[in-house]
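Quarterly update from the structural biology core.
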Amino acid sequence: MGRSRDKRSVEMERDRLREQVKSIMAKNMELVRQIEKNTKQHNNREQLYDDELTQIKLKYQREIERNECLRQTNENLLARLKEELANRKGDTYELESLRGHIFNLTSELQLAQQQAEMGVQCKQELARLESEFIVMSEVQIKCRDKFSEIDNFKARDEEFHMLQTNYNKELKGKPIFLPKTTYRKLIINNF
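Predicted structure, tokenized:
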């Protein structure tokens, strides 16, 4: 009985150990599955990280290229700005020159306007003098006509004086003959 108890105890121990081995094997299998799962997850994560790293490297390379392009653009813009500033400085000088030219032209224009006003005044004065000259010419013509009349009157007076002298002589007995034209003028003027 002792042997059978020992045998039984050994069998129980063996069964217990088998159960323990089974349990350990199950745990081991579970751990292997967990390790495989974790390895797979790790590999997946590592692949994600590699992909992300590749994307970051590409993005970094693009940023470097973009920064290089921006640096070149910035240098070009700075060169253009420098050129524009030089042009603006030249334009400023030209603008100042044009302002001076405009000032000179304004002065010349004012002088020309003054001269034009003086010309208008001179023209008005000339027109006034011309009208006075016309009036004076008319007066001169009238004076000439009056002088001509005076000469006619003098001639008539002389003729009248001569007629009177002739008449007085005729009255004294001396007959004097007048020319026909003088006689006609005398008759016409007396009527």
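The radius of gyration is 73 Å.
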